[in-house]
Amino acid sequence: MKVWLVTIGxxxxxxxxxxxxxxxxxILSAALARRGDEVTWWTSTFDHVRKxxxxxxxxxxxxxxxxxxxxxxxxGYVRNVSLRRILDHRMLARRFDEQAGGMPRPDVILCSxxxxxxxxxxxxxxxxxxxxxxVDVRDLWPDVYLELVPRWARPLFSxxxxxxxxxxxxxxxxxxxxxxxxxxxxxxGLERAGRATGAFDRSFPFGYVVPSLxxxxxxxxxxxxxxxxxxxxxxxxxxxxFGTIGRQFDLETVVDAALLLxxxxxxxxxxxxxxxxxxxxxxxxxxGSRSVCFPGWVGRSEIxxxxxxxxAGLAPYRDHAGFTGNLPNKPxxxxxxxxxxxxxxxxxLEELLAGEQCGVTYAPGDARALTSAITILARDSAQIxxxxxxxxxxxxxKFDAAKVYSEMGDYLREVSAxxx
Length: 420
Description:
Shape: globular
């Protein structure tokens, strides 16, 4: 089967000298290649995390496993919410239009939304050339933009977003099927498409690959953490976080809770790993804290080693529409490491943590509520052990990448066969 994946914004197998942590498209592309499928992954030359160009022009890279990376060149951007980012996405869509028509047709295409411009171009291609396109809803663009403005300004802002809303609707309407990483996201796509659920509209959670690390890699990772007494020191309730330190995470509440816990004499330690536009402001907020540490961006071996040293994982997502109906990949990574999740997100994740008894949810933006939740967990080691066992079980049943992406591969074959 010839498959095209169209996803930007994810780490590539070529990033960080091959040590980058792959996400949905990266893991799925490798899984399909192992099955013998011919995979082309359309992506961007621009590294969304580092805010830097990988290449100065359109570039094609063939990986050792046979996956072909088609990197389209855009202008890049500094701020995630900006007109320049929209311009970058328009450039990528135009370059896809210019190149896709001259290539051998695939049997099926899986295209991520967001962005908006690429799914519109890809579904237009699918209609023109008779190729089934599955739009995979990853975030609720442009709806989430409304949460960035005051309530009184939202009616006016909604009018400004009308062109983007049209793009989202048109892409979903032209798609052969809608998928997403949660049932709520599939429902959102179907609402934009204006139709009922069909036979091929399905949700697939993010899957996580447990890394196969050598003894040398683990030794280096443990050596890295040996420089942080907050981690290797005896005692203490240790919590970790990995991610971009930006708008989507409410780490300010985490830091405020850490300072409260220090004043109350609770030995809780916070390892906030990552980089991003809010890092310096967050460091200033935590100035003088003995329990908050910022190790910077860390690789997969350091992540796995740290999860083995911690008692819980932090998922302090901001409680808005893009996350409340979603199951992001961070909690799944914590489940893989056997960590209970401490979350500030209502909705789908809150229901999962309560139903499976593998974590707790605190009131969003409430440092005192987070302090209380951590204090209770820190004093109940039996509960933590039970939650950790439940997290490992849940991961094996629902979120192991081998299971998730095998099912997605079967699904894409079904779509291709049905369309043919």
